[in-house]
Structures are given as C-alpha cells and as structure tokens.
Amino acid sequence: MRAIRISHHGGPEVLGLEELSAHTTTLTNGPVDYLTLRVDIAGVNFIDIYHRRGQYPVTLPSGLGIEGIGTTESGERFFWLSALGSYAEKITVPLSALTPLPNNSLPDEDLLPLLCQGLTAHYLVDSAYSVSKGDVALVTAAVGGVGLILIQLLKARGAKVIALTSSQERVKRAIGYGADSAGLYDEMEKLVRNLTGDNGVNVVYDSVGKDTFDRSLALLGNGGMFVLYGGASGLVPPFELMRLNSKSLAIRRPTLATYTTSVSERTRRLQDLLSLREQGLLQYPSATVFPLAEAAKAHTLLESRNHSGKIGLAPWKI
Ligand SMILES: NC(=O)c1ccc[n+]([C@@H]2O[C@H](COP(=O)([O-])OP(=O)(O)OC[C@H]3O[C@@H](n4cnc5c(N)ncnc54)[C@H](OP(=O)(O)O)[C@@H]3O)[C@@H](O)[C@H]2O)c1
C-alpha cells in the first residue's frame, strides 16, 4: 500500500510517497484491539506541519496525518482523530479510537471539516472556557479551518466576536462568518477598545502563539481566560506566572484528545455540530481534496495563509 512518510524534518519537500507491505486486519486478543481500515479521506491539520517541522516530537522515520474517515473490510465506516500515519491507503487503529459515522452522515468532504477542526471549536466554547451570552471573545487565525467554525459557535452562544487575521480579504470573510468586528493583527488594540472601552475581553482564543501571545494577553479584562490552543507562528516562550496577577487572569493550554476521550463524547460533540448545521447556524466550505501523492501541495497551501477551511487527502484520487 502507498503512504506518505518522512525520514527527516523540514519543509513540504520531505513528504515522500512510499510503497509499504500491505496491512491485514488485526483484531488481536491482546490488551488493545486494533482494526485495519481503507482510508477514504485523510484530514490535513496544522499539527501535521508541527510533526513535519519537528516542532512536536515524532520518532523518525514516521507516517504523517492523525485524522481520517475509513471503511473496514465488512463495510462499516468510522472516523478517527489521533492515529499517526493517516496519509495512507490503509491504517490500523485501536478500536477505542474509532467512532462510527453518524446515521445522518454527510459526504466525506462535508463531514471532514467537522472532525478535528469542528470538534476543536466545539470543546473550545463548551469546555475549555464555557462561553456565556454577552461574553466578548478575541479570536486569532479567525478564518482558518478551526477559526471560521469557532466564530459561528461563539455567535450561537450569544458572544460578541472580535476576529483577527492577516489580509483585508480575510477580514471581509471573517465578517461574512458573523464576527462583530474584524481586522489585521496590528489593529487588535483598537478593535478591542472600540468594542469594550477599557473593560477588555472575557476570553482570548489564540492559535497563532509566539507572534500574538503578549499583545492579546494584555487585552483581557479582569478575571479573563486565555485559551492558547496552537502555535502556528511558533511556541510561546517560558512564562512568568506573576504576569497573571494584576487582573486575576487564567491560562489554559488544551488539547483535543482530553475532550474526545470516549465514543459517546465524540458523538455528542459531533451531533451538536450537525444539528447547528441543519439549523443553518453553521456554514463552511467543503474540504479541498488533493490526491495522496500531492501531500506536499496540501501542506504548502495550509502554510500559505491563503486558504480558509479544511484540506483533505484522498488515496483514490488521481
Ligand atoms: N489544541 C488543540 O486541541 C488543537 C486542535 C486542532 C487545531 N489546533 C490548532 O488550531 C490552529 C488552526 O488549525 P487549522 O488546522 O484549522 O489551521 P488553519 O487555521 O486553517 O491554518 C493556520 C492559520 O494560522 C494563521 N497563522 C498565523 N501565523 C502563521 C504562520 N507563521 N504560518 C502559517 N499560518 C499562520 C493563518 O491564518 P491568518 O493568516 O488568518 O493569521 C493560517 O491560516 C493551529 O494552530 C492548530 O495547531 C489545536
């Protein structure tokens, strides 16, 4: 079977298409049961770029990609969120990490944006910080795959949203997804002052990390919560906790795995998203799908800051 693998860290050029010996279905009697699936579509996520760059550790040589939708030999369909090696024609996943697709399922390219990215946006507003009506939220990377869903989930909970992004065209798009106010990163202080006066925001959702951390932290009001959930510009350096003291601030550094520990939790969060979609409260573009062999193009697009929404890789696509 064909798979994308890396033998050293670097740019998109380190992604190589390799022929590996075929997987077989392995339902073992050991402590962990596994199932082998044909990968129908693999998700491309920013964490794959951290793995490729070496920003998050992986043991080399390694497969890449953690998310996908696939089919077993007997025709059952599942999704998974945390199986390294998903950029492949087949994958073997622990049964506990698999979730059956919902009955009212969408085409794969419309379901995929709701998995890693949609479920992340869901736990961010529901659990990492429980958003209440009237809260003001500052959101970075606001029209990326997570960001554009996050804006809409915040609005559905009655929050006011200040969206930050990197071009005027993306600012317009953020307003289109429902942000109350949007602008370039340079404008964040002005945007927060215009909407909150001197009160500051209740919550910051920051996935850009190094480049935005200090300035967005300063825009929280008393008792505010900083949710740092990514580092697209690099990792935030070590931090002096006394900086939280003058406004009694809190910081959370969450990960999706903690908020999707069981089939029932994953299903509950996904059903919430599907229901918002059915009510017309959640809109997003279908995933942009590349052939497996074009994984490098998919990474280049995700890093370009010109894409908005989900990217997928399809082993069946030529
Ligand atoms: N902790 C978790 O549980 C969790 C789970 C899933 C994803 N995440 C994080 O959520 C973020 C969004 O993930 P995604 O897959 O949906 O990606 P994405 O938002 O579609 O793409 C990343 C975005 O980050 C912004 N960005 C800022 N500085 C950048 C830089 N130096 N290089 C490239 N992009 C930069 C860009 O938006 P602008 O140009 O608009 O700034 C870009 O579109 C990532 O940081 C990811 O690590 C975290």
Top keywords for this entry?
318 residues; 2 domains; Quinone Oxidoreductase, Chain A, domain 1; alpha/beta; Rossmann fold; six-stranded parallel β-sheet; binds NADP nicotinamide-adenine-dinucleotide phosphate
How many domains comprise the coordinates?
2
Question: What is the count of β-strands?
Answer: 16
What kind of assembly state do the chains in view correspond to?
single chain
Would you state the CATH class of the largest domain? Alpha Beta
Descriptive account of the structure:
There is one protein chain. By secondary structure, the chain is of the alpha/beta class. The protein folds into 2 domains: 2-107 and 286-314, Quinone Oxidoreductase, Chain A, domain 1 (Alpha-Beta Complex), CATH 3.90.180.10; 117-258, NAD(P)-binding Rossmann-like Domain (Rossmann fold, 3-Layer(aba) Sandwich). It is 27% helix and 25% strand. The protein is built from 9 helices and 16 strands. The chain has helices at residues 46-53, 108-111, 116-128, 145-156, 168-176, 188-196, 213-217, 263-278, 295-303, and strands at residues 2-6, 16-19, 34-44, 62-63, 67-71, 77-80, 90-94, 99-100, 136-139, 160-165, 181-184, 201-206, 220-228, 250-252, 288-291, 311-314. The strands form 3 sheets. Strands 3, 5, 6, 7, 8, 15 and 16 form a 7-stranded mixed β-sheet that branches. A 6-stranded parallel β-sheet has the order 11-10-9-12-13-14, with helices on both faces. Strands 2-1-4 form a 3-stranded antiparallel β-sheet, with no helix packed on it. Helix 3 crosses helix 4 and helix 3 (116-128) packs across helix 8. It is globular and about 60 Å long. The two termini are 15 Å apart. Bound molecules: NADP nicotinamide-adenine-dinucleotide phosphate (NAP).
